[in-house]
Amino acid sequence: MTYRPDTTTASPKQTAMSITQLFSYPFRIFFLSMALLATLVVPLWVLQVTAMIRLPLAMPGLFWHQHELLFGFLSAAIAGFLLTAVCVWTNTDRSHGMRLFLLWAVWLTGRLLLATGEGLPFWLVHGVNLLFLPLVMIDAGWRIWRARQLRQLLILLVLGLLWLMQLGFVVALDMRYSYGALIMAMALIAIVGGRITPAFTGGWLRQRGHNANTIRTYPALDLSSVIAMIILLAAVISGFNMAAGVVALVAAGLMLLRLAGWKGWLARKEPLLWILHLSILWVPVALILLAGTLMAGWPSSAWTHAAGTGAVGCLILGVVARVALGHTGRPLILPHGMVTAFVMIHLAALIRVVTTFGLMPWHMGIGLSSLLWTLAFGIFLVRYAHILARPRADGKPG
Q1: What would the pLDDT profile of 288-327 be if each residue is shown by its tens digit?
Q2: Does residue 12 surpass a pLDDT of 50?
Q3: Cα distances (angstroms) measured from residue 278 to each of 172, 259, 296, 318
Q4: Is 167:127 a contact under the CB 8 Å cutoff?
Q5: Which residue in 305, 183, 299 sits closest to 248, CA to CA?
Q6: Stated pTM of the model
Q7: C-alpha–C-alpha distance, residues 229 and 148, integer Å
Q8: pLDDT tens digits, 64-106
Q9: In the 8-state DSSP scheme, what is residue 111?
Q10: Rounded to whole angstroms, how far apart are CA atoms 184 and 175?
Q11: CA distance 280 to 85
Q12: Spatial distance between the Cα atoms of 239 and 294, rounded to a whole number of angstroms
């Protein structure tokens, strides 16, 4: 894609940046906060694990690192996307103003308590952190219920299971629950990615006079892939490793079949589309690596980083780059540098996985992967902060 600047005209009042504008729609403040956290938490973790600094963390360092990426970074992305999308699905007014500020304050307080709360009471630190996802589910849930959109209940079910994994994680500090959270994150990708990716790809082909009917989706296959991941979650938490390995392979096969039907190679010239297809491809890769961990003793950090850095990190960057443009009334034209950011985030995932298998020296691999991750989200911040903090380019509210 050739970069072209946004030439949408707007008055000086419309182009003024403001803090209050960030609280005019959920995606604005949560996407900005999510990206800020992404650029901070990984470098801080590298400095912590290499003993260059010591943070007054409220939990052991490794668990803090996992929690912040799973339930800090991911939860902010979920809140920004879901609370924006659900208004469109249900034709309801958005959460904004003081109500949105208070929700965001719960998220931010959770981050600060975990990063600086050494010695603080358990109930305070984790009570605040465990409050956020239920508040998001309540906001989305009452809209879905009032609109009688039962199709959306599957998302709430998976979010509820994700929250249970967070509860188990902070109470027991058991890696099984972080594994379960990653599986539910991939289930969310299977649901949301399965809706937007083929739809956006078909629309793009149609606009260019191509045959959009070549993009195929199968509702039974879509549902089966999510159910397989829920079964996988139960097997992993229960400790049935061999059975979980088999289910992981089945889930990987189902996701590969779905991806084949979406024909991502037809959209290889459009970065806003190939980033979605390539990111979701990390899901079956992670599931295959998980099966290898459970059945053949492969390093567990291979599948967790394929899922966390690859599937979750890459897809979030691709989705927020598109949503931030579309919901601010701007053309779907990537700002300069974002294609580089997309490449960087995928390279970060690839390098982190191959480092796990000893194909790259550990310190070099960790450092390079962390640098690429940080630069990718740093580019997003530089290119999108002014977009998120300004009114819509078309003058509409939100």
Answers
A1: 999 999 999 999 999 999 999 999 999 999 999 999 999 9
A2: no
A3: 35, 9, 26, 10
A4: no
A5: 183
A6: 0.93
A7: 26
A8: 999 999 999 999 999 999 999 998 888 888 888 999 999 999 9
A9: H
A10: 14
A11: 20
A12: 10
Name the percent of the chain lying above pLDDT 70.
Answer: 96
Q: Residue 57: name the closest of 109, 132, 117 by CA.
A: 117
Q: Which amino acid is at 36?
A: L
Q: In this structure, which amino acid lies at residue 64?
A: W
Q: How far apart are CA 232 and CA 250, in angstroms?
A: 10
Question: Quick check: 14 pLDDT over 70?
Answer: no
Measure the CA–CA gap between 161 and 186, rounded to whole angstroms.
12
Tell me the average pLDDT across 376-386: 97
Task: State how far the Cα of 69 lies from the Cα of 189, in Å rounded to an integer.
Answer: 16
Q: Nearest to residue 187, comparing CAs of 287, 79, 66?
A: 287
Residues in the chain: 398
Distances (CA, A) of 154 to 90, 137, 222, 339: 15, 12, 12, 32
**Per residue in 208-245, pLDDT tens?**
999 999 999 999 999 999 999 999 999 999 999 999 99
Residue type, 20: T
Q: d(Cα 323, Cα 192) in Å, to the nearest integer?
A: 13
Which amino acid is present at 391? P
**Side chain identity at 120, as an amino acid letter?**
L
The pair phi, psi for residue 128, each rounded to 5°, is -65, -45
C-alpha closest to that of 183 among 203, 169, 204: 169
Contacts of 260 (CB under 8 A, 6+ apart): none
Helical H runs in the chain? Answer: 12-15, 19-22, 26-49, 61-67, 74-90, 97-116, 122-146, 153-172, 175-188, 194-207, 219-238, 241-262, 271-296, 300-305, 315-326, 338-356, 362-388
Whole-number mean pLDDT of the chain?
A: 93
For residue 198 the two structure tokens come to 């083929």
Predicted confidence (pLDDT) at residue 7 exceeds the cutoff of 80: no
User: DSSP secondary-structure letter at 151?
Assistant: G
Q: How many Cβ atoms from other residues are within 10 Å of residue 150's Cβ? A: 9
Residue 359, both tokens: 């194909």
